[in-house]
Specification:
This protein has about 150 residues and is mainly alpha-helical. About 65% of the residues lie in helices and about 5% in strands. The protein has a two-stranded antiparallel ribbon with strand order 1-2.
C-alpha cells in the first residue's frame, strides 16, 4: 500500500504533537542539563537536532536549498525551544505545498548523510530520528520520576 503525501504529513504532525508534549513535561533545568549517564546528551540537544534535520531536509526538498547547519545552538530556555519548534513546523507546513508526490519519489545523493535515497526516505529518516530521540526523552522523564505523556495520543 502506498502512503500518500497527505498521510505522511498527518503522521509527521501527530508525532510532532507528541514530541512537544514530551518537551513540555520536562522541568526547564532538566531539559537543558540532565542526562541519566555522562555519554548522553540532554533532551534539548536532541530536539535541536530534530529541528536542524527537519529544516535542512524541508528546505532542500521543497526549495532546492540544501544547507545543513546548527541553527538552534544558542537556545537556552524552554520557551525559546518550544517557539523554535513551532516556527520550524510552521515553515514545514508552508513548504509542504511545494512538494508533490512525484517529488517525494525523486532519488538523489543525500547531501548531509551520504547514500542516495528518495525524498520520501529522507523524511522517513527524519521522522524515525524524532521517534528515537523522543523515546530517549521518555526514559529521561521516567528516571526523573516524571510520568511521560501517553505515547499513543497523537
Amino acid at each position: 500500500m502506498f502512503l500518500s503525501k497527505e498521510a505522511l504529513f498527518d503522521i509527521m504532525e501527530g508525532n510532532r504533537r507528541l514530541t512537544m508534549r514530551v518537551i513540555e513535561a520536562f522541568p526547564e533545568e532538566k531539559l537543558f542539563h540532565y542526562t541519566p549517564v555522562e555519554k548522553l546528551r540532554p533532551f534539548a540537544e536532541m530536539v535541536k537536532e530534530i529541528m536542524n534535520i527537519e529544516r535542512g531536509y524541508m528546505r532542500g526538498i521543497a526549495l532546492g536549498e540544501w544547507e545543513f547547519q546548527d541553527s538552534f545552538a544558542t537556545l537556552s530556555t524552554k520557551e525559546a525551544l518550544v517557539k523554535a519548534c513551532e516556527d520550524v513546523r510552521e515553515d514545514t507546513r508552508k513548504m509542504w505545498n511545494n512538494i508533490t508526490e512525484g517529488k517525494l519519489e525523486v532519488v538523489e545523493k543525500d547531501p548531509f548523510f551520504g547514500p542516495s535515497q528518495s525524498h520520501f526516505a529522507r523524511l522517513q529518516y527524519a521522522l524515525e530520528n524524532e521517534i528515537h530521540h523522543r523515546g530517549q526523552g521518555f526514559i529521561y522523564l521516567r528516571t526523573l520520576g516524571i510520568e511521560p505523556p501517553e505515547f499513543f495520543v497523537r
